[in-house]
Each structure stands twice: as C-alpha cells, then as structure tokens.
Amino acid sequence: LSANNESRGALVVFEGLDRSGKTSQCGRLVSYLEGLGHSVELWRFPDRTTSVGQLISAYLTNKSQLDDHTIHLLFSANRWEKRSMMETKLKAGTTLIVDRYSYSGVAFSTAKGLDFEWCKAPEIGLIAPDLVVYLDITPEKAAERGGYGGERYEQLEFQRKVSQHYKLRKDSSWKIVDACQPLDDVEKQVKEIVLQHIIACQKGKILSSLWS
Ligand code: FDM
C-alpha cells in the first residue's frame, strides 16, 4: 500500500474463541477511545448485513448447508467487500476496532481440515492489522461461561481444534491477553496495548497488506 507519512487510524483486530469476551472488550474499548476524543468505529466479521453476510448467517444458523471451501471463500469475500471502505476510513484517521478477521477465517477452516496455504490465499492483499489482540482462554473455561448459542461452530470439541489452529498462526502483530482474568483487568491491559498502537499509527506507521 502507498507509503505516506500522514497520521492515520489504526486497524486493531480482536481474535479468540467464542465466549472469550471479544465483543464486550471491543465495546468497552470503543467507548473509552471515543471518550478520549478519538475517531473510532466498531466493525465485525462476518458482517451479516451485506448480501454475502446473509449467506454466511444462514450457514452459521444451520439454515443452509455449504461445502467447507465455499463458506471459507464467502467469509473472505465478506472481508473483500469492505476492504476499500476500510482503507478510506484508516487513511481519513479513523481507528477501526474489528471483532474477528482473517485469522478467524484461517483458524476455523483449517480446524475443519482444509489446507493452510489454500485458506490463506484469498486473504492475500487485504489490509494487515496493526495489532491483533488475542483473548486467550481455554476452550473448557470458555464453555463454562455458558451461553454458547446454537450456532454451527459453538461446540466444545470443535472449539478445542480452533484453539490449536489459532496458536499455530500467531505472528509478531499478536498480543496475547489472558482472558481468564476479571473483565476489568483484561480491559485495562487492552487499553494500554491499543493506545500504544494508535500513537504509532498517528506518527505515520505504514499500512501494509496480508500476509507479512
Ligand atoms: N468465522 C468467522 C469463520 O469461520 N471464518 C471467518 O472468516 C470469520 C470472520 O464464524 F464461529 C466463524 C467464527 C464464529 C462464527 O462469528 C461467527 P461471530 O463472531 O460469533 O459472529
């Protein structure tokens, strides 16, 4: 992506198992950043509001059946359809807090047995996150929190596999936060990490592409 020295927003992605607290932490973080006067938006993938997102939602709620490769590509397409908006917002100085991204795409599909390189390929060229906050919790602890809905992947055995596949994929952009701590402690750590990254982006850190 074009090198510029201008201040821009940060792309901050949250990843983790179901019930790891991503959605609560993203919400708290966005309120906090807004309170500090930052321009910030909360995004999530899958974005179920688009037409591709509706196909994904039907699959996740078991209203449709799709081949594993097909649903993988739909998840990826759902990110591609938001890519140019993402770039515009970041360059305009808006920080995006994103609940799940390409790492979910790869972790969930490889947990089903799909080939890693094949899974990564359609993600190439999407915008690389400046920071990935991984909310680390064991599948057993997450299951104890209850509230697994009835969606397709919300089963302990499958979450165990996803957890292993996530761990294989962590890279230098990841910060691992212990998500078994009380919510307030997690929140405090998340705020500190994220603020550092927002400042780096304001100082002109270059936007890059997946996968680096
Ligand atoms: N999921 C999510 C995938 O399998 N691939 C992806 O690319 C993404 C973004 O969809 F089980 C899975 C992860 C989760 C399900 O996510 C729906 P939410 O966060 O529960 O809506």
What would the keywords be for this entry?
single chain; 212 residues; alpha/beta; Rossmann fold; five-stranded parallel sheet; 8 helices; 5 strands; binds 3'-fluoro-3'-deoxythymidine monophosphate
What does this structure look like?
This protein has 212 residues and is an alpha/beta fold. The chain has one domain: 3-Layer(aba) Sandwich (Rossmann fold), CATH 3.40.50. It contains eight helices and five strands. Strands 2-3-1-4-5 form a five-stranded parallel beta sheet, with helices on both faces. Helix 2 crosses helix 3. The longest helix is centred in the middle third of the chain and has 24 residues. The protein starts with 10 loop residues before the first strand and ends in a 10-residue tail after the last helix. Bound molecules: 3'-fluoro-3'-deoxythymidine monophosphate. 3'-fluoro-3'-deoxythymidine monophosphate binds next to helix 4.
Record the SSE blueprint:
Blueprint: E1 11-16, H1 22-35, E2 40-44, H2 51-60, H3 68-91, E3 95-99, H4 102-111, H5 116-120, E4 131-136, H6 139-144, H7 156-169, E5 174-178, H8 183-202
Parallel strand pairs: 1-3, 1-4, 2-3, 4-5
Helix pairs in contact: 1-8, 2-3, 3-4, 4-7
GO molecular function, one term: kinase activity
Organism: Gossypium hirsutum (Upland cotton)
Family: Belongs to the thymidylate kinase family.
